[in-house]
Every structure is written in structure tokens, then in C-alpha cells.
């Protein structure tokens, strides 16, 4: 679509603005159907975005998106229409706000709940510097369950600054929103009862609304009024929108259309999770499943449907979900907590303090581990091996395929300590064969004393390719499935004391498997060449996972070169 | 004191119970004055604890303490009076609830905000198992600011279980409680207005109170009624207590007497932080300081007094504080966020996602790093080097003494990226001399090719001792102040390519300095002996820091043995 300028937007008639909304919606739909991306959330906020751009002056005023699943119209309105077709492609536009991309994006987001804190920070800085622009946080109701949002709301009075919070209430996060706050907001959508409005006022916010967030004729005067009120203090504007608005398929299937993948997907680990837990549940009444607003994405839907009384979606509350698991385990249950790797970072303290310090049998099912691709910097799952490597009492497993993941889940039922299993989205099925906790698998043995030690399906595939190429050059190379980061297979490592080990992991090179293996040999006084490949010490941009892996540390050619060197130096 | 049995407590008259409260208070005061510990918080909750033990049946009923700064009377009432004099001593009673210590402690705590989540988990497990005991969370109002508490409250309706939340409202966390929730509770202490009560009801809680939590004649019937109401649903009982109740010095100085140290303390790093920031502020109007309810403990009081408009205590909200810093930095300010190492774990995701992914100039001042001693497992600051070692864009500094800490702070003002400085509580002053970011300091050079590479004051002291002992045995050993974990001093490390390096760090051995140094040599293809000493892969109990360090990985004799071996193998 052609760029709509700020001037055009400021001068347009209401009818013209509505037409613009239609154009934006078409462009978003067209682009997402090619590039993938967040569809329903972006379609739902087109009018809100147009109204914000009409009423406020960006980039002088600051607009901060929570999560950022709803920034596409903003990108299209802020000089990026001509490059919007590059969305989520390597080198192209990010699917999230990015300061490096435009001065209209003042704060990068990706995880839930940060926008109000960030808005308060911008507003406070403005006050201290004697500036006078407006600061707006656009927050979905799903994020309103998150503790960070509450911590920020609690600070409105402490910080004594002025922010506008626009609550984009579509009744959904990625899953439907749940919990007490959701019910409170639900009550307020009709006619807000005085007592509920007063709550927000006690927190230092003037409540305005609810308004229909998909109707410009309601939105524009409401926002103009909010802008006026903002001169005196902080304001919460409650806008009710429809996720997927304007595209009937999205409106009727907002969970499925929250994020759209351009390509068809093969087997997924998460489907195996749902199947296995349902099957295991039959003989294990102590099994419960927990998710933080990700029931479908982590594959728990079948379990939720079969065992609703022991399946819990607590909303975007990764910390609370962890403590809930720890305490249910302390009380004799067997909790499975399924979560994306990047979001598990939110529960880091609870993993240490609640689950592992008490050595409780909670199983963390860590999905989207490794390079996760098109969502970019804020969504890569490349730190989990590093931040779990040093947590006492924890066992960390990395299945080689979906079959081994199933076997690990079956084994986990009787495992009596905390266990983390990390895996990517897609994979191949493979056999379900037995194994021992803490034992690696020797896939190809050799006399050459050069061993590739790879963790997880993606790295094992790279290792197989490297090994095939080495073989074709006459070099024999062994291959080990390093399926545990904690504990390491010490017996096997000791048996490999001669020669060179080359480790491969789909994780930050710092703090992962390579360091663990090298540390093992050092601590045993064994001189050993350990060469390690993993992801570079930088935040990885968006792009295809295999392309990113190749570019940022797991290049087959470089690994093959390492094999050649090791072979030459035997 | 002699043990008061459950039976005695159940049958005692009101007068007898009051006498018991007096005995408990005396015992707590006497023990804390010898052993150190949390005084004011424990004195304030004596009546609440007696009333809970009178009305409920522990350990059948479950009592979960938030944080646990208020569990002493509970310990005295649950069979531990005869060992209470061992409080916080190595091998003695923990200052926090510990499952390993008594069946009356059903869930371990230490960090704020976990108790309601944990109570919901216990209650849900009870329901699923068809049991019928009561589950009670005792939570201070300071924790009520924490996002995790809100996430749990949001779940009360989702989980459809029954818990009793006793809100111990003394207007304090370690610092006075702040923020919107505090003001709301404040309003309710008079006569709770209908609208505020309704808020809790929307979250699925029946509000009861406020009651005087230091008056048994009010408390006992209120708790009995709450127990009755608990049969129908979840209840919030709002008890107003006085921190330090019954000991006038505590009542008048609750911040100072929150935690008591048995010995006199020498110089402290946190005092230097306050002094330096106040001085730096004169030429740097962009400096702001942030704390999560720890103004005094982290040494920021002078800054708060001198520059109240740019000093922010946001309550026990470690995550929000981090985002606030990131956003203020994005808006041109220079934030200093002072926090204990163990509590920084709560902000792990925000360090990655908000501060470092955006490469923002936030300075993290990480206090109580390393073994922190008498608070035990939940308060050791031994993971920070590990969880910061792999975060891209971050610089991590470890000063050798308070003088170097001052120099680092002075340098930090013009540093344009995220910077973490980690230090223990106590230290020696030392010179304030200049240095370059990422450069180590060669303290003792030698021809022997055996180098001790130590991070931080405590490990440098151990290294000096080991070096002296080695010298007395005729062995020359070099010594390097490894004052940066990120970046390493690559030039110096390359110059040490021959011989043996022995690294020492007051951090988990896994993922810290030793691994970083070894990785550096590996990645440069340099064969190098790197022997590493740090803390064992386990949760460290309470005890004197130097005793724990010696016992769990930093034993001088073991390090000297390593020197002897290296010397013999030259």
C-alpha cells in the first residue's frame, strides 16, 4: 500500500479514516498470509492505532506497545509501508517494535507486561528533563493478568508522573484471558460500577470507558478527552476490541489466527506432549498440567479436554505457574509445566527458589527451545541450557527426536526430582526406546578419536551431515547423542579421554553443553581437546531458524573444518 | 524456654495465652540478640502465630509463610523450643521455614510473594486427593506489592479452591510499604469502604477485618470465624500488627531492627554506593537511583535524602524496577539499580529482554553477592556470575575492594552500555585507582607460570593467603585481580598462555569465571591447564560465610594442594 502521511491522517475526514483502516487491514492480511506473523491481534487494533496517530504526535509523543503483537498498523503509518512486505524476513522489518528500525518505536517489546513500567520510566525521564510530550502504553487485557503490570500500576502513585494506559480489551491473550482481573474487566464492559472504577482511582488512574475500540466515531473523542485529562494525571482508557476484526475467519478463530506460519508444519513435539500426558494420566492420578496462557501452543489442549479438573491455565503468569507446580508437588502431585523457553526466563527465580531448592518433582516441558526464528531477538530460546546448567538438583534432558521425548516423558513419571526437557517446535518422530537418566547414546563409534557430541535434534542433524561429508573425505568421525546436560554421562566421557570432542548445541555457546563437557575433563585433570559450537554471544535477529543457526555459530563448513584440523593433528 | 505443647495451647485461658506470647517474645529477643536474625517482624506476629496454632491443627492443616521473616514463634510452638538457641548457626535451625526441619514447615520460603501461589497449590492438591484440611498463607503487606501475589490472587477464581490468606499489615516490608495497594489497604484499616471490599470479592475472596493482630481477644474470634467461612470459599483476613510489638526499641526503629547482625560490621560496600552516587550526581543530572524496598540495605538512603525527586523505591517489585530503569535509560537518564544478588534472580528476564537486548546504559549494583551466610539457601548470592555470564551486551565487573568499587562507579557514569557490578556486604576500603574496562590487574607477577586468578575481595584474600603459604614453601605463584567476567582481559590471558591458571570465585563453580577463562583458551586453540575453584553444585545452608566457603569449594588447603601439584608438574 502507499504510505499514509501523518499530515494526511491529521486532515482526513472520518470517512477517509475508515477507508484507511480498510487499506491497513488489507495490507496486514496480504502480508501476513505471505510472511507469517500475528494476524488477529493486529487486525483488532487497526482503529485504535489510526486514532492514536490522529490524536497524538509521534514520534514526539511516545507510544509503547505491550508484547508488540499489535504494532503492524503502527509500522504502516510510520514510514514503513514500502518495506512492509519484508516483515519477519531476515534483514527485513521485525514483527515487534524495534528502536533500531524507526524513531517511532521508542521501546522494544516481545514479552508481556512491560509497557506500563516502560511508560512510567519514559514519563519520569520527561518530567526530570523538563519536557512535555505524552506517553502512552497500549496494553492487551491478557497482559493485565501479569504481575509486572500490577507492579507498575502500584507505582503510578509512587512515581507521580502522568501516563495514558490504553487497555485493549479483546478478552484474549493468545488463549482466552482468565482470572479475577478478567472478570472485573468483564463487569466493567457493561456499565462500569462505581466501586470498580474507584479501584483504579486508588491506584492513581482516572478510569475512562469502556469505548468501542473498533469504532472511530467513539474512539476519537474518547482519546481526545483522555489527552486532555492526561494534563492533570494518569488515565486508563478501556477500549473494547474484537480480535481479528474485519476478517471473519479470524474473528471466529482468534486462537488459531493469533500467529500465522507461512509454511505447513510437520510433526510437532507439543502434540506428543498432549498425547503422552493423556496416556500417562490413566495410571497416574497424581499428574497435573499447568500452562501460562499457552494451552494450544504447548500442545496441552487434549489434556485440558480430557482432564479439566487437573489442567490449569493461569494466564500470563509464568512465575505463579512455577510456584503452583512446586507447591502441588510438595503436596504429592506430579505437575507438568509446559512453557516456551523464552518465557521460562520469567520464572528463573522460582525454578531456583521454589522448585529446585526444595528438590520437588516438577517437570518443565520447555518448548521452542533453541533458535525460534521469525519472532526475533525477544523470542529466541537460546539461553535455557545456560540458565539451567548451574541450578542444583535439576536434571536437564535434550531429546534427539519426538520418540525420545515420548520416552523421556514416560520415564519422568517416576522421577523424583525436578526435571527439565527442552525441545524445538518441529521434529521427526523416531523410535520410542528406553534409556537411563544421565546416559548419552553412542550413535556412531569409531577408532578415530574424533567425536561429535551433539545435543538435540537440530544439532544431531548438523552433526550427521558433517559426519557424512567427513566420511566422503575419508575421515572417520564418531557421533554421540548428548541427551543430558545435567548430569553428564561421566562414564562415556571418561571412555573418550583420548582425542578431540566437538560439541554442538542449539543454545548460546556460553554456559551450555560445551562448557559442561570441558569442565568435566578439567575437573578430572584430563587434558582433552574440546571444541565447542553453539550460538554467538549476541541477540539473534529474526529469520529462518536454520539460516540463523548457520550464520551465528553452527555453520556446517566451520564444523567440518574443525574435524579436518583435528584429523590432521591426530 | 520450655516447649508449649499443642494441647496446652488448645486448653489455655486467654490470660495464659497472653502470658505465652510474653514468653515467646522474650525467647525471640534473647535468641536474636545472640544469634542475629529477623527481630521486628517476628515480634510483631507473636499473637497471630499463637492464634493460628490455637484455632488450626498443624501439621494437618498447612501454614505457609510468605518470605518467612515471621516464623520464629511458629518454630517455638512446633517442637523446636529446645533447639531454638541454634538459630541461624551452621547445623542449627534455619531462620526460614524448612521442610527438612519439621513437618510443621510444609513449604520453604525466603523470597517475597510466593505464599498465596503455594497455598493455592496445596489446596488444589488437597481437593484432587479428596482430603479436607485447611490451607493458610500468612503474607505481609510488603509482599502485597509484588507481582507474584497479584498473579496468585488472579488465580483464586481459576483454581476454584479454598484458602485463607492472613494479611499481616504492619505498613512495612523491610522498608515502609509504598504504592497504590498500600494506600488501598490504608483506607481499609479505618472502616473498609464497600467498594474496596468488593474488589477482593471480585477476585473470589471474602474480605474479613480489619482486626488488631496484636490483640488475642480480637484475633481469636476473627480467626475462628474465618475458619468457618473457609468451608464455603476463600477468605482474606486483614490483621493490622505493629512491627516490633512489645519491644519499644523495635517499635520505634523497625527498619533498623528488621534484621539484626550479632557482630559489629566493618566497612560496607553499600555505604560507598550512597556516597559515590551523591557525589557523581553533581555533574551528572541524568543519574537516577532505583531500589525494590531496600533503600537502607543497599546504601541509597543518602541519595534518597539528597535527591528525592530522582530516587525511587517501588516496593518489592524487582521486575518492574528493571523495566523502569531500562525505559528511563532509553529516555536519556542514567539509572543505578541497587539490589541484592539473590533478588536479582527475579529480574532475570527483564535484564535480558529490556536492559541488554536494547543495550541500555543501566548500572546494576549487585549487593550481597557470593555466600551471604546466615539466611541460608534462599539468600545466597552465588549464582549471579553464572546467570550474567551469557547475557549479550552486558559488562560484568567484580571489584577487589571498596576503593575499586568507587572507581568503577565513577567510570560507570560515562559507560554507554549495561553494566553489572557485584560485591559482598563487607570489605576493606583500599585505594581509588584508575583502570580500563575489561582489564585485569596483575598484582604479583612471577616466573613460575603458576597464576592465581581471583575475582572479588574474598577470593583475592584467599589467594593472598595461599600465595603466602606457597612462598613459605619456596613456591612462587603469581596473582591476578580478575575484575571483569565480561569482557575478559584477553591480552593478559594470552600473555599467560604457558603454565597453569588457578581461578577462584565466590560463585557457583558452574558457569562462572573459571568456565569463562577455560572457554577463552579453548576457543583460541591454546592448551592450557585451568583449575577452577568456586562453590559446589548444591544449595548452600546457613552459616558463617567464610566457614561455608571453606566447606563448599573454596578451601585454602585444597587450593594450596593444587598449587603444589602444578608446581611439581612444571
Compact summary:
Two copies of one chain form a homodimer. Chain A is 40% helix and 16% strand. The first copy, chain A, has 570 residues and is an alpha/beta fold.
Describe this protein's structure.
The structure is a homodimer of 570-residue chains. By secondary structure, chain A is of the alpha/beta class. Chain A folds into 3 domains: 48-69 and 94-247, Rossmann fold; 269-422, Rossmann fold, CATH 3.40.50.970; 441-568, Rossmann fold (3-Layer(aba) Sandwich). Chain A has 23 helices and 17 strands. Chain A has helices at residues 6-11, 14-35, 40-44, 46-55, 72-77, 115-129, 147-159, 180-190, 194-202, 216-229, 248-252, 269-281, 301-306, 318-330, 341-344, 348-356, 384-388, 402-412, 457-472, 490-495, 513-523, 545-551, 556-568, and strands at residues 62-65, 135-140, 164-169, 205-212, 234-240, 287-291, 311-313, 334-340, 363-367, 395-397, 419-422, 441-444, 450-455, 478-481, 484-486, 500-508, 529-535. Chain A has a 7-stranded mixed beta sheet, with helices on both faces. In chain A, strands 1-2-3-5-4 form a 5-stranded parallel beta sheet, with helices on both faces. The first copy, chain A, has a 5-stranded mixed beta sheet with strand order 12-14-13-16-17, sandwiched between helices. In chain A, helix 4 (46-55) crosses helix 10, helix 6 (115-129) packs parallel to helix 7 and helix 12 packs parallel to helix 18 (402-412). Chain A is globular, with a radius of gyration of 25 Å. Chain A starts with 5 loop residues before the first helix and ends with a helix. The model of chain A has no long low-confidence stretch (mean pLDDT 93). At the A-B interface, helix 6, helix 7, helix 8, helix 9 and helix 14 of A face helix 6, helix 7, helix 8, helix 9 and helix 14 of B.
Amino acid at each position: 500500500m502507499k504510505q499514509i502521511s501523518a499530515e494526511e491522517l491529521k486532515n482526513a475526514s472520518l470517512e477517509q479514516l475508515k477507508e484507511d483502516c480498510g487499506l491497513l487491514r488489507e495490507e496486514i492480511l496480504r502480508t501476513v498470509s505471505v510472511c507469517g506473523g500475528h494476524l488477529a491481534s493486529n487486525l483488532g487494533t487497526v482503529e485504535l492505532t489510526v486514532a492514536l496517530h490522529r490524536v497524538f504526535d509521534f514520534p514526539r509523543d511516545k507510544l509503547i506497545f505491550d508484547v508488540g503483537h499489535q504494532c503492524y498498523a503502527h509500522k504502516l503509518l510510520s514510514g514503513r509501508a514500502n518495506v512492509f512486505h519484508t516483515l519477519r524476513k531476515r534483514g527485513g522489518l521485525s514483527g515487534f517494535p524495534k528502536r533500531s528500525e524507526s524513531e517511532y518505536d521508542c521501546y522494544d517489546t516481545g514479552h508481556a507486561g512491560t509497557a506500563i513500567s516502560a511508560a512510567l520510566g519514559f514519563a519520569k525521564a520527561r518530567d526530570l528533563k523538563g519536557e512535555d510530550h505524552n506517553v502512552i502504553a497500549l496494553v492487551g487485557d491478557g497482559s493485565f493478568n501479569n504481575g509486572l503490570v500490577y507492579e507498575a500500576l502500584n507505582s503510578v502513585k509512587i512515581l507521580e508522573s502522568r501516563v495514558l494506559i490504553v487497555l485493549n480489551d479483546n478478552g484474549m491473550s493468545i488463549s482466552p484471558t482468565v482470572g479475577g482481573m478478567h472478570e472485573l474487566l468483564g463487569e466493567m464492559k457493561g456499565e462500569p460500577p462505581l466501586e470498580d472504577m474507584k479501584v483504579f482511582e486508588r491506584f492513581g488512574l482516572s478510569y475512562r470507558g469502556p469505548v468501542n475500540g473498533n469504532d472511530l466515531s467513539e474512539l476519537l473523542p474518547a482519546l481526545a478527552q483522555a489527552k486532555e485529562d492526561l494534563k492533570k494525571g494518569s488515565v486508563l482508557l478501556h477500549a473494547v476490541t474484537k480480535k481479528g476484526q474485519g476478517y471473519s475467519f479470524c474473528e471466529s478463530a482468534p486462537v488459531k489466527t493469533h500467529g500465522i506460519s507461512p509454511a505447513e508444519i510437520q510433526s510437532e513435539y507439543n502434540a506428543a506432549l498432549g498425547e503422552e500426558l493423556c496416556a500417562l494420566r490413566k495410571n497416574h492420578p497424581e499428574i497435573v498440567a499447568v500452562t501460562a496462557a499457552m494451552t494450544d501452543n504447548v500442545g496441552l489442549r487434549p489434556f485440558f479436554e480430557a482432564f479439566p479438573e487437573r489442567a490449569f491455565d493461569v494466564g500470563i503468569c509464568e512465575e505463579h505457574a512455577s510456584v503452583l507446580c512446586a507447591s502441588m508437588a510438595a503436596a504429592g502431585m506430579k505437575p507438568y509445566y509446559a512453557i516456551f523457553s523464552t518465557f521460562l526466563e520469567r520464572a528463573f527465580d522460582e525454578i531456583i527458589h521454589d522448585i529446585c531448592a526444595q528438590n520437588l518433582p516438577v517437570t518443565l516441558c520447555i518448548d521452542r527451545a533453541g533458535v525460534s526464528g521469525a519472532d526475533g531477538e525477544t523470542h529466541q530460546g537460546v539461553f535455557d541450557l545456560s540458565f539451567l546448567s548451574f541450578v542444583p538438583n535439576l536434571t536437564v534432558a535434550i531429546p534427539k527426536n519426538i520418540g525420545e521425548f515420548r520416552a523421556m516423558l514416560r520415564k519422568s513419571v517416576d522421577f523424583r526430582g525436578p526435571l527439565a526437557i527442552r525441545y524445538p517446535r518441529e521434529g521427526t518422530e523416531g523410535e520410542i526406546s528406553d534409556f537411563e537418566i544421565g546416559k548419552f547414546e553412542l550413535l556412531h563409534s569409531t577408532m578415530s578419536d574424533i567425536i561429535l557430541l551433539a545435543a538435540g535434534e537440530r544439532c544431531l542433524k548438523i552433526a550427521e551431515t558433517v559426519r557424512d561429508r567427513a566420511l566422503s573425505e575419508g575421515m572417520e568421525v564418531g557421533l554421540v547423542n548428548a541427551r543430558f546436560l545435567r548430569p553428564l554421562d561421566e562414564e562415556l566421557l571418561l571412555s573418550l579421554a583420548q582425542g578431540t570432542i566437538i560439541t554442538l548445541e542449539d543454545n548460546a555457546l556460553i554456559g551450555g553443553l560445551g562448557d559442561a563437557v570441558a569442565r568435566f575433563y578439567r575437573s578430572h585433570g584430563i587434558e582433552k581437546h574440546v571444541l565447542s559450537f553453539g550460538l554467538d554471544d549476541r541477540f539473534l535477529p529474526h529469520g529462518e531458524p536454520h539460516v540463523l543457526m548457520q550464520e551465528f555459530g553452527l555453520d556446517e563448513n566451520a564444523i567440518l573444518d574443525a574435524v579436518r584440523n583435528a584429523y590432521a593433528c591426530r
